[in-house]
C-alpha cells in the first residue's frame, strides 16, 4: 500500500514580497504566489499523484495554495481540513515589521537570534520549538493516522509549521532543522511505511 504524504509551503504572499514578518497575519498570495501554487499542482499531476484528504492552516495564503493545487490536479472537491494548529510561527511583536526595520530597532544580532535559534522566542511570540509543540501533537493525532492507514495526504502550510513536520519525519535536531530552507510552492513528497517511518523522499524544488 502506498503511504503518501506531500508537504507544500504556500506560494509567495504579499508580505513575503515586502520582507515583513508575517506570522498569524493573513495577507493574500501575490500573482507570483498564485503561479507557484498552480505550478506545484502541475508537477504533482505529472507524477500521477491524487489525494484522499488535504490539511491546511487557518490562514488564507495556505488555504488558497491548497485550493489551487487541487484545482490543477483535477480534485477541486476534495475534503480539506483547516486548523490553526498548522498556522505559521507567531512572531509576536515582530509581526508586520520589515526585517530591516526590526534589525534597526533591536540590533542585527538579537533579530538573528530570534529568527535562527530553536528555542528563543521573539517578544510576545513563539520560538520554532514552541511552534513544533503546537504542530506535532496535531500531526500525530490527525494527519499521521490517515497516512498510516493508506490515505494519500496533502498538507499545505507554512515555512515553520512545515519545518516542525520535516524535523519529525526526518529525525532532525533543532539545529539541523534551522538550516533547512523550504521553497515556496515546492512539494516535498514522502513515502512512509505502515508505522510512519520514511522510506523515500522527493523534493520537487531540487
Automatic annotation (TrEMBL):
CDD domains: HP_PGM_like. Substrate binds at residues 9-16, 22-23, 61, 88-91, 99, 115-116, 159-160. It catalyses: (2R)-2-phosphoglycerate = (2R)-3-phosphoglycerate. It comes from Pseudoxanthobacter soli DSM 19599. The gene is gpmA. The active site is at residues 10, 88. Keywords: Gluconeogenesis, Glycolysis, Isomerase. The record marks 158 as: Transition state stabilizer. This is 2,3-bisphosphoglycerate-dependent phosphoglycerate mutase. Pathway: Carbohydrate degradation; glycolysis; pyruvate from D-glyceraldehyde 3-phosphate: step 3/5. Coiled coil: none annotated.
